[in-house]
Write a structure and sequence with these properties.
With 517 residues, the chain is of the alpha+beta class. It has 16 helices and 15 strands. Helix 15 (459-471) runs antiparallel to helix 16 (482-516). The radius of gyration is 55 Å and the shape is rod-shaped. The N and C termini lie far apart (115 Å).
Length: 517
């Protein structure tokens, strides 16, 4: 709004009026003096008095209008101050006391206007922030200042974070600061949590020797940890920066080799690759690399990669393979199935006899595969026995159960294992042998039948023979009464001979079957 009654305009109006008055009255007096010469002298006095009166009235009117304009402007600014939706206040820079507060300050902070007038700005600060407030005022400059984010206390003790904008000026003869406060607690706490999360994430990914990196859809690096930066510099000599093209960091040949995996991941296909590489001063190293799509609002925008050093595990696997090869050589003389169970990773390695004895050509290395092939009626007892052995620190474990072959037929086995423990006494590994005892159990049953035949079938003729012998005339063996008894003895002997032939035949059959195994 243009102020028509500013001091400069008042002076200009007065000057214009004075000039117009002088020229117009002088012309009028000259014209009158030509008619009546005596009018010139008295007219001069009259002109001066009238000029003073009119100019005084004009100045009074102009000044009154200017003051009214100032009052109206002041009311307008006060209304803006009071009606501002953001909390505002004016405080004395000398003693920090509140001089004026607006309605929003009363509503937000909970203090009444009277309470504010008896407070200083220090009363609404946490005790630990008071010294910082004083130091801020020691370096305060005039005019506008963006004071940043501060902590304030409401009347109910609630702590809020506010963004302060201030203007140092004069008010009622005092040096004051006009303050506008904006509550940014949610934004500040969200940013603080985000920064803490990012710092924690950065600490985590940089505290591991595993390699972590990410590229965008344009094959440029957008994030990586220190381990990855160092390994790239070691391999290629490139100092990695955010925005570095993948081809620049890895070289043309390596980029082409890995391009297919990145492109597949950008299509939404997770990749798991086992990489073998020879590094300077480190020899042959192995890594398992996982690539996952980075999805934002349903759109794939990049690839997150994680490489874990599996050199030690790979070397153990190679060593274990050699050991199993030795086991295979040893077990050429036996039909036992040799197994090695890593209880930490729950991975089981079997030798070739598993296929030879039970027909399994496709085997999952997880322990659950073995458990799923134990007969349902035996599995609970077998697993419980195994767990008890591991929990009680037993070294040796043995159990008989039924194991399913590839064709679905169950065979009785005798499984024996040796449990190894770490320094904390926790089981970490078990090596054992599983023996097919189905035929052995059948032979035992056959032998039991032979034993039963021997003990029961022979008992009757032997008892008969003993009874006949007791009736013989032992004092005179040629006595005629002995003849029929001896005939009975011959008959019983023939019966016993037949039984003995049956027993011998069964024993020979079992022996021949045993030789075939």
């Amino acid at each position: 709004m243009i102020n028509l009654f500013s001091p400069l305009r008042t002076v200009l109006i007065y000057c214009i009026f004075g000039a117009v008055w002088v020229f117009s009255t002088d012309s009028l007096l000259r014209w009158l003096s030509e008619q009546t010469p005596s009018v010139l002298r008295s007219g001069q006095y009259f002109k001066g008095i009238v000029f003073v009166l009119i100019s005084a009235a004009l100045l009074y009117w102009l000044l009154q209008k200017y003051l009214d304009s100032l009052r109206k402007s002041e009311r307008t600014y006060l209304n803006i101050f009071q009606a501002n939706p953001q909390p505002m206040w004016i405080y004395d820079l000398g003693n920090f006391r509140f001089l004026e507060v607006n309605d929003a300050a009363v509503n937000v902070y909970g203090y009444s206007r009277e309470e504010f007038k008896h407070m200083t700005i220090l009363d609404m600060r946490p005790a630990e922030d008071v010294e910082r407030v004083k130091q801020y005022h020691n370096n305060l400059s005039t005019g506008y200042a963006d004071a940043g984010v501060w902590r304030h206390l409401k009347k109910d003790g609630t702590l809020i974070y506010v963004e302060i904008q201030a203007y140092a000026t004069m008010y009622n003869g005092k040096e004051v600061q006009v303050v506008c406060s904006r509550d940014v607690s949610e934004k500040f706490l969200a940013n603080k949590a985000l920064n803490e999360h990012q710092q924690l994430l950065s600490t985590i990914i940089n505290s591991t020797d595993d390699l972590v990196w990410a590229v965008d859809a344009n094959m440029r690096f957008v994030a990586f940890n220190e381990a990855f930066r160092n390994i790239i510099q070691l391999i290629t000599g490139v100092t990695l920066q955010v925005g570095t093209p993948l081809i620049e960091a890895e070289g043309e040949a390596e980029y082409r080799r890995w391009q297919q995996y990145y492109e597949a991941t950008l299509r939404g296909e997770k990749q798991v690759i086992e990489e073998e590489r020879e590094l300077q001063n480190a020899g042959i190293t192995y890594a398992e690399i996982t690539m996952d799509p980075i999805v934002d609002e349903g759109r794939i925008i990049g690839v997150a990669c994680f490489a874990h050093n599996i050199t030690e595990r790979k070397q153990q696997e190679i060593q274990m393979k050699k050991m199993l090869e030795r086991y295979d050589m040893v077990t050429l003389a036996t039909s036992d199935v040799i197994w090695d169970w890593d209880l930490v990773s729950n991975q089981v390695v079997w030798n070739k006899n598993l296929e030879v004895q039970f027909g399994h050509t496709v085997v999952e290395n997880e322990g659950g595969w073995w458990e799923n092939h134990v007969h349902p009626d035996d599995v609970e007892t077998v697993v419980a026995g195994f767990q008890q052995a591991a929990e009680t620190g037993q070294r040796a474990w043995a159990v008989e159960y039924r194991f399913r072959r590839a064709d679905g037929v169950y065979r009785s086995v005798n499984d024996r294992g040796y449990v190894m423990y770490n320094e904390e006494g926790k089981p970490i590994r078990m090596i054992g042998a599983m023996q097919d005892i189905e035929d052995k159990k059948k032979y035992i049953e056959e032998l039991k039948k032979v034993a039963h035949l021997s003990s029961h079938s022979l008992r009757r003729p032997v008892a008969s023979m003993l009874g006949i012998v007791s009736m013989l005339n032992k004092d005179n063996l040629s006595h005629p009464d002995n003849a029929p008894l001896l005939a009975h003895v011959e008959k019983v002997a023939q019966e016993m001979d037949g039984i003995l032939h049956v027993v011998a035949e069964k024993c020979n059959t079992i022996f021949r079957q045993t030789e075939k195994v």
